[in-house]
Specification:
Strands 1-10-9-6-2-3-5 form a seven-stranded parallel beta sheet, with helices on both faces. It has a three-stranded antiparallel beta sheet with strand order 4-8-7, with helices on one face. It has one domain: Rossmann fold (3-Layer(aba) Sandwich). It is α/β, with parallel strands linked by helices and 241 residues long. The protein has seven helices and ten strands.
């Protein structure tokens, strides 16, 4: 794992966008694994700037998002479909047919999970996977547990995750209690991984990910086994290192 520590969130966002843009320049038909949440918002804003400068095109890029809340329609303002349109897709030249996000309203969840895995396989795997990290060490919505979930699956969200995400909703009661998420094997299958963390609240999770033992109690710790990971953190997230 390669660790980069930068001064602040703005610098982190610009550096992350540069890494993603470089991937697109090197391979215009890249398959990008994308994340949601507050951390990558700045990265997507910087990517849009790079696109508007005419330096990159998303016309051949395929995107595969990590997860989606179960029970939310794609047009719900709290859905990750909506998030991605607002922060990235509506502002670049990506083709609708190249955007892949789990269906949060799928009636047959197991079939939806199989469909998603088939998409990843059909496109030849993910070239660069963008990740955030939860305060409890989760990546995607792979929560701490007794074992690693391998493939795309339905997750029961922990109380900590629900509380952490409540800031995006009117009340904690509105936060969905389940999500469809790519599994650990799905994430680890990416050729390259870029993990972002910002702020002192993430410092404990970053420390355990980098310095702790590999355990499903800290899902991000499994990244120690991946051959090509960049961990990009600001000084707050690195404060315990």
């Amino acid at each position: 794992m390669h660790l980069e520590i930068v001064k602040d969130y703005e610098t982190l966002s610009k550096r992350a966008a540069y890494i993603l843009a470089s991937q697109i320049i090197l391979k215009p038909a890249s398959v990008l694994g994308l994340a949601t949440g507050s951390t990558p918002v700045g990265t997507y804003r910087e990517l849009v700037k790079i696109y508007n400068e005419g330096l990159i095109s998303f016309s051949r890029v395929i995107t595969i998002n990590l997860d989606e809340y179960y029970g939310l329609d794609k047009d719900d303002e709290q859905s990750y479909h909506y998030f991605m349109r607002e922060h990235l897709f509506n502002h670049v030249d990506i083709k609708d047919e190249n955007i892949n996000i789990p269906d949060g309203k799928a009636v047959d969840v197991e079939a939806e999970c199989r469909r998603y895995e088939n998409i990843i396989e059909a496109v030849g795997g993910i070239d660069l996977q963008l990740l955030g990290i939860g305060q409890n060490g989760h990546i995607g919505f792979n929560e701490p547990g007794e074992h690693f979930e391998a493939l795309t699956h339905l997750v029961d969200l922990t109380e900590n995750t629900i509380k952490a995400n409540a800031r995006f909703f009117s009340s904690p009661e509105e936060v969905p209690t389940q999500a469809i998420s790519m599994g650990i094997k799905s994430i680890m299958g990416a050729k390259k991984i870029l993990l972002l963390a910002s702020g002192e609240k993430k410092a404990g999770a970053v420390y355990k990910m980098l310095k702790g033992k590999i355990t499903p109690q800290v899902p991000a710790s499994v990244l120690q086994m991946h051959p090509d990971v960049v961990v990009l953190v600001d000084e707050g997230a690195a404060s315990l290192l």
